[in-house]
Amino acid sequence: RSKHYHATHYKYAKYGITKEWFDSQYHNGCSICGTSFSISKCHIDHDHHTGIVRGLLCELCNKGLGQFRDSILYLQSAIDYLKGNKRCT
Q: Which end of the chain has less Cβ packing within 10 Å, N or C?
């Protein structure tokens, strides 16, 4: 299908969201870091098991969640690591 169709219909139907919801969230920027989508590509983040949309993410935050396999345990472990990690000098 055309890029126009994808931009105006497909992504909303695929994720079960409305254009109005998307537009209202888009202007807030990334749901994690707040980066404006004029700077970064916008990704519709969703739970891969339920399909429920969680929010809109910038490219880096979307990739970050993917690298941690959407695991709260892995993310908490990374937080704990960062809090406790001291520079080796």
A: C
Q: How far apart are CA 61 and CA 75, in angstroms?
A: 12
pLDDT tens per residue across span 6-23: 777 888 999 999 999 999
30-81 per-position pLDDT tens digit: 999 999 998 889 999 999 889 999 999 999 999 999 999 999 999 999 999 9
Helices (H), 1-89: 3-5, 11-15, 19-26, 59-67, 72-84
CB 44 within 8 A of CB 56: yes
Q: Are strands 42-46 and 53-58 parallel, antiparallel or unpaired?
A: antiparallel
Residue 74 C-beta-side C-alpha neighbours within 13 Å: 8
pTM of the model: 0.83
